[in-house]
Amino acid sequence: MSAPSYRADIDGLRAIAVLAVVGFHAFPTVVPGGFIGVDVFFVISGYLISTIILTGVNAGRFSFATFYARRIRRIFPALAAVLAACAAAGWFLLYGEPFSQLGKHIAGGAGFVSNFVLWREAGYFDVTADTKPLLHLWSLGIEEQFYLAWPLMVFLAWRAGLNLVALTIVVFAVSFAFNIEGIRRDLVGTFYAPWTRFWELTAGSALAAIVTDQGTGLGVQLRRAADALRARPGRRDLLAMAGLALVVGSALGIDRTRHFPGLWALLPVAGTVLLITSGPEAWLNRAVLAHRVMVGIGLISYPLYLWHWPLLSFARLLHLETPSASIRLAAVAAAFVLAWITYTAIETPIRFGRRRAWVVPLLCVVMATGAGAGALTFANGGFLGRPLNRTEKASFLRYYESIRRTGIEGPYRLECDFMELGTDATKDAIPASCTQKGPGRTLFLWGDSYAQALAPGIRTLLPPSDVLAQVATSHCRPGIVPIDPDVPGGRCRRANDHALARIADLDPDLVILAQRAAHDATDWPALAARLRELGARDVLVVGPAPEWSPSLPLVVTSQYWGRNYDRVSYGLDRQRLALDRALKARLGQSPVLTYVSLIDALCGADACTAVIPGSDPPELITFDAGHFTPNASRFIARLALARYLARN
């Protein structure tokens, strides 16, 4: 097992990785697990870069300056081109808030901290992922963070006389342990945190350590074992076939419902390790991965990765709905063209051309300037003085953005949420005032943020002597047994246990249940029967609210501006209408609960009410995809809930 200066089959493996990622982003139903291509890249990078580091360290000629100069020549040119293109596109196409967010992501990308920026953004009211043109730079952040720490660790371990193979195994084990522990309590953090991802890079680094080990200990023994395994063509071919099966099987068999990375990431990581270990002599590597087409795609894989997602994301931003297959194909084709141009005209001349001393400092200045420009764009709210922002449309969107940012904090009673708004942090408790008993009737609202959205309206319909108690926790649907495994930190269990305990203490006159998702997965009659056993006199189940993708304000400004938008069909999620019909058929005659259809109150056959009747100027009922504004909450409560809340 040796480390050749160049392996064409590894470029072919890069091609598989980037094609998997591009396929997932463009056609997620065809390649549902294509995101594992990033994990393949991590292993390849760990192997190739660590081979350079370890070879230099073992020979006593490793230079930090040379190493980082090579990284800058490799990474900065294509990245700078993509960041500049995104900034230019955003200037002409995006309004204040979206352009401001793009500026933040440009700064994060240029500073190689995108993973931390995206991690901090993750929260219930965060915008959808496919409207963030630089979302994919999280992986670049993790990779470069690894290469800030790893060379120093290797160098210090070598100076101390420690075994470098053992070092890679220890780092792998510690990082993998963080990954397994993190996936149980914080899915978002585990996805973006570098310490839960470094094990994937050190999987490749371990191979490099074995290849370059010059001692007589663990590395040599492992290299001999690998050489023996690969000694016969049939064995190395079997290794390669098994590796490819794991990688391709992961791309086709894993999907977004899996807790990833976690244990699932072992499959593509192990597959990549097997493919690299099998060596360039294996038939699959020689005949398929080293084919000139695969090598060609592999050579442009880095700029292709950088270009494809912004093109698909801007197409989504402009169409508001998922672009047609032909548009997505055109975006992918354009990404290939731009990647080839970037590789031949920008990346190759800078990376392999004449090594002028001023190139690296200039690239650092360019990247620092990009980071500063992005930060300035974010700090200035997307430069509201641009002509694009001096329009009625821009003012309209800013109004609903202001509701999303601040207006919900009072009416929505977020103190009664077990989640810290804007994060995935879990609170240990909520104030006692959230679930107090009233001198008159006590009503109890239980659910998620869609239940929170109903609270302002419900309160306006109650006399002063009545009290609305509330346990409404974002992401968490009500239930007898907590059944929201995708929510970290035990938040839903804590919220549901607290709600059940308080219902038993309060004996409420009415329990109102509302949630966004999984209505059809909840056993509503069983839950209602349990609540009645605990003392609730009546149970009201509120059906799904209408939703528009990506948000009602964006749909109106894009598709209905200049004409009537009282009722809006474009972007409407019709699956929610079908779900409501199914729930009415199932629960309409239940003896233990009353089902209330918001869809019946707001929607017709193919469109739903989008504006509060009589509002002047017209006010939309939601500030995002489906959360009601406080004024809309009051309108909808009068329209759909008043007769159920009246005193019996």
Structure write-up:
It contains 25 helices and 7 strands. It is mostly helical and 648 residues long. It has 2 domains: 8-379, no CATH class; 394-645, Rossmann fold (3-Layer(aba) Sandwich), CATH 3.40.50.1110. A 5-stranded parallel sheet has the order 2-1-3-4-6, sandwiched between helices. The chain has a two-stranded antiparallel ribbon with strand order 5-7. Helix 11 (233-253) runs antiparallel to helix 12 and helix 15 (301-319) runs antiparallel to helix 16 (325-352). The protein is globular. It starts with 7 loop residues before the first helix and ends with a helix. The relative contact order is 0.10.
Helices and strands, with pairings:
Blueprint: H1 8-26, H2 37-58, H3 64-93, H4 96-110, H5 114-121, H6 138-159, H7 164-185, H8 187-192, H9 198-212, H10 218-229, H11 233-253, H12 266-278, H13 283-289, H14 292-299, H15 301-319, H16 325-352, H17 359-379, H18 392-407, E1 442-447, H19 449-460, E2 467-472, H20 491-506, E3 510-514, H21 524-534, E4 538-542, H22 552-560, E5 567-568, H23 574-587, E6 594-596, H24 598-602, E7 608-609, H25 630-645
Parallel strand pairs: 1-2, 1-3, 3-4, 4-6
Antiparallel strand pairs: 5-7
Helix pairs in contact: 1-2, 1-13, 1-14, 1-15, 2-6, 2-9, 2-12, 3-4, 3-15, 3-16, 3-17, 4-5, 4-17, 5-6, 7-9, 9-10, 9-12, 11-12, 15-16, 19-25
